[in-house]
């Protein structure tokens, strides 16, 4: 490619559908007729942040025990599972954590996943701290896009949220590095929690308008049991929408694809688009095609699951791919999860897997 061609065109070309590329791929449907399409892979339970709503220091302090190396799936084990999932119809992968980039050589894993027949799209969710110096290697390995989490544009507010005193400026450098590497448009995720950062909705929108990046507001969810979630803490999608619309009128946009979790809006003045993810007040379980793999190889068919299914034991116990595939097919076929449609104060208090284990 010529030097002066913008990097954004350096991305991996669009791929054909898994059925075209992978004749053995099938559509596996669950008990509510939802296909299996997305696999989210957590590669570590560790993180260099202690976001107050995700890994509060009281629960994840210096005495917290993280998973030992031997208990975490190797890159080879992850890639093998990705191959089996692709055979069942998965065509999108998201790498997450903890903070995925604290695990070394992530580009090696991306390369292995990009080589899996049937995988069309590989993305990574990160706090962006380790992106400068990494973004190009990730792109070269086959990463398609990046989602960056940033919960405030005000430096003091952001430092309070990440709780390790990390400056906003460095996250912005990470976003820039991703865009320059051709991994844009970057999606920027902001979790909105009452009393924490709802005063940042407009400043964040002001900052990211007209940049080409897509800011997405996420309702605070009752994932896990350590973040002290209460319904009163949720700033609803409707409130977020109204706040934005009063400042810059919004117009709804069609989803990019069926089952897209964010409701899309464009600024009527042409300054780009925003998304709102309303998993608490306007659930989207009816189109949920996502399955989640924890760093230690437990599979969750819902973000709010209490009990994972141990794939590591199958892998390390010598099960052949066919047996693992049959297990996954049976598991998905019986899936009837729709937690967000059924949420009550009582369900919120039930034991659930932590976000830092399965990565959102
Ligand atoms: N460390 C990476 C990051 O922050 O992007 C990836 C893992 S993090 C668990 C994935 C996403 O989950 C982040 O965007 C984070 O803000 C979001 N998240 C964590 N806890 C949440 C909660 N209780 N409600 C809504 N989103 C949450
Ligand atoms: Fe770490 Fe991401 Fe959780 Fe923040 S949201 S503590 S960056 S895993
Ligand atoms: Fe999917 Fe569970 Fe979230 Fe519903 S609550 S959208 S089933 S992960």
How do the SSEs run, as a string of H and E? HEHEHEHEHHEHEHEEEEEEHHHHH
Helix-strand category: alpha/beta
The overall number of domains is 1
- Cα end-to-end separation: 36 Å
CATH architecture: Alpha-Beta Barrel
Total helix count? Answer: 13
- Which fold name fills CATH's third level, the topology? TIM Barrel
Total DSSP E strands: 12
Protein name: GTP 3',8-cyclase
Region (Disordered): 1-28
Pfam families: Mob_synth_C, Radical_SAM
GO molecular function: 4 iron, 4 sulfur cluster binding; cyclic pyranopterin monophosphate synthase activity; GTP 3',8'-cyclase activity; GTP binding; metal ion binding; S-adenosyl-L-methionine binding
Quick description:
Helices cover 29% and strands 16% of the residues.
Please outline the helices and strands.
Layout: H1 18-21, E1 38-42, H2 75-87, E2 92-96, H3 106-114, E3 121-126, H4 135-141, E4 145-149, H5 155-162, H6 168-180, E5 187-192, H7 201-208, E6 214-219, H8 237-247, E7 250-253, E8 263-267, E9 273-277, E10 290-293, E11 298-300, E12 309-310, H9 311-316, H10 321-333, H11 339-342, H12 345-349, H13 355-358
Parallel strand pairs: 1-2, 1-10, 2-3, 3-4, 4-5, 5-6, 6-9
Antiparallel strand pairs: 7-8, 8-9, 10-11, 11-12
Helix pairs in contact: 2-3, 2-10, 3-4
The structure holds S-adenosylmethionine (SAM) and iron/sulfur cluster (SF4) (2 copies).
One iron/sulfur cluster (SF4) binds at residues 279, 283-285, 288, 290, 302-304, 337-340.
Pathway: Cofactor biosynthesis; molybdopterin biosynthesis
Cofactor: [4Fe-4S] cluster
Binding site for [4Fe-4S] cluster 1: 47, 51, 54
């Amino acid at each position: 490619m010529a030097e002066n061609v913008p990097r954004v065109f350096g991305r991996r070309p669009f791929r054909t559908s898994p059925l075209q590329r992978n004749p053995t791929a099938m559509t596996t449907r669950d008990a509510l007729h939802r296909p299996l399409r997305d696999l989210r892979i957590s590669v570590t339970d560790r993180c260099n942040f202690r976001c107050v709503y995700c890994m509060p220091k009281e629960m994840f302090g210096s005495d917290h025990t993280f998973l030992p190396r031997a208990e975490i799936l190797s890159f080879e084990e992850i890639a093998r599972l990705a191959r089996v999932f692709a055979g069942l119809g998965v065509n999108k992968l998201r790498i997450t954590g903890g903070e995925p980039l604290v695990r070394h050589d992530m580009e090696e894993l991306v390369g292995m996943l990009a080589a899996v027949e049937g995988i069309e799209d590989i993305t990574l969710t990160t706090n962006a701290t380790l992106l400068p110096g990494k973004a190009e290697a990730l792109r070269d390995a086959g990463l398609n896009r990046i989602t960056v989490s940033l919960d405030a544009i005000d430096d003091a507010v952001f430092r309070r949220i990440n709780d390790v005193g990390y400056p906003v400026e460095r996250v912005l450098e990470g976003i820039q590095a991703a865009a320059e590497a051709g991994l844009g448009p970057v999606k920027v995720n902001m979790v909105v929690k009452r009393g924490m950062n709802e005063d940042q909705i407009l400043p964040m929108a002001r900052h990211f308008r007209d940049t080409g990046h897509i800011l997405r507001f996420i309702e605070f969810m009752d994932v896990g049991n350590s973040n002290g979630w209460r319904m009163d803490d949720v700033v609803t999608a409707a409130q977020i929408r109204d706040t934005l619309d009063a400042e810059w009128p919004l117009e709804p946009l069609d989803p990019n694809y069926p089952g897209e979790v964010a409701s899309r809006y464009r600024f009527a003045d042409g300054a780009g688009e925003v998304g709102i993810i309303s998993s608490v007040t306007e659930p989207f379980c009816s189109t949920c095609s996502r399955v989640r793999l924890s760093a230690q190889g437990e599979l969750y068919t819902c973000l709010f699951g209490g009990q994972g299914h141990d794939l590591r034991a199958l892998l390390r116990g010598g099960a052949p791919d066919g047996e693992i595939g049959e297990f996954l097919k049976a598991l998905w076929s019986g899936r009837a999860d729709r937690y967000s449609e059924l949420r009550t104060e009582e369900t919120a208090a039930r034991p659930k897997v932590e976000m830092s284990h399965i990565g959102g």
